[in-house]
Every structure is written in C-alpha cells, then in structure tokens.
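Researcher: Going back to the complex we discussed earlier. I've cleaned up the inputs and rechecked each line, so this should be the final set. Can you rerun the prediction on the complete assembly and write out the structure?
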Amino acid sequence: MEKLAPVALAELLEPHAGLWVAIKRGQVVEVAENPGLLSMRLQERQIRDATIIRAPRPEEPELVGLG
Amino acid sequence: MMVRPLPWAFPYVMERAPERHPLGRAVLRPIVEARVVGPGGESSKYAALIDSGSDYTLAAPIVAMEAGIDLRNGRPTTLQVGGAARDIWVVDATLRLCDPTLSDVDGGCAPGNAIEWQTEVGFFERWHEPPFPMILGQVGFFDVFTVTLSRFTQAVLVDEIGRLETRLPNL
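Model: Rerun complete. Updated structure for the full complex:
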C-alpha cells in the first residue's frame, strides 16, 4: 500500500504561531488575531476560497482529544 | 462543473514537523476543507478536523455568523470540551465538503462541485482560541459518509454511506 504525501502546513504555520492564517495555493495570504478579523480582511481584499486554520504555538501542549 | 463521484481521498495535514516534536515525529491530522451554508450565504472555507471521538459536529461562532445562522433558534446544551463545560446551540444547517482535488482552484468549493448535506451542527456560544474552527463528528459526518482514517497511508477516504456494508464479514 502506498502512502500519500501529507499536506505540509507546518512550515507555513510556524511563523504565525497563535494566529489565524488564510492559505491559498500553498501560500499564506492573510493573518489575523482571530477568525472574525481574518474573514473581514479577506473580504476587504476580495480574496475568496482561501482556507482558514489556526497556527498552534510551539509551546502549546499537543492536542490529542477535545474531551 | 459536476460533483466528482466518491470516494474522495484527503491527504493528512502535517501540522508540526518532526524536528519540532518532542518525540521527533510529525503531527499528522485528518483535516478536510468545509463550509457551512445558511440563510446569509456560505461561510469562509475552514480547515475541519475529522474527530471520530466527538458525537457532535461543532463549529466556532464566527462560522454561524458568516452563514447568517441565528443561534437563538437553536437548541441549547452544554458539552465537556477541552476539559471545560462549554455551551453550544444546536441548529439544522447545511454543510459543504470541498473536493480536495479542487483545493487550489478558484470557485473550487461551490454547490456545483462540492457535496452538501443537511445536518445538525453545534455552534459554540463562546470559543476563544479553538484549536480548529470546525470539528466533523459522529452525528453530521460519520452518519453521512463511510470514513476510513489511515495513519499508515496518511490519508482519509470519504465514501458513500453504504460502502462499509460490502466490506463487513458475515456476522
């Protein structure tokens, strides 16, 4: 069985630790302190179809479950 | 454009590189891209964590706001999430799963090329610094698709809901 190459977001997210990041075509296109602000900035710049994700801080304990 | 038939394969997302991990291994997550659609239109496209351990499909309040969903029409309940009791509003909403092959295409997560379904979604009343803006759980995702998670293959396979029955041994 063949492994798929993972989507390598680690390097993209690392400079923006703790922030919300919009990614499009493999590039960070906008960053903000919260998703609402990020969404507003994307609208202002008329950037559509970016994917929004939060960049974890390096010192954050690794998430293993939400319960 | 037509909706591509299932199954869809989503590569895992590397959130943390091995050299940044205390045990020297990558943090690989089963993450897909999804939107919520409501009376106000569609939300932004969010990274959604597939979480088989969550009985609920959950989203941050900003997602409801973007889709124009009035949480006051929802059913309130309280969940234990991240070690704390958190209030959510459960509403009926439309979810849209984005085709991973169109991730970098403008208009690549639109009604004509993505899969939409109606389900209940729990929106947090307050959720500061959520690790993920959307969580796809048992109700709302695993009861809609056959979902196969493979750390070995580093991929998620999302298939038609009845697909597992053909793989079950005779019991």
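Model: Worth noting: The helical segments of chain A are 10-13, 35-44.
Researcher: Good, that matches what I expected from the previous run.
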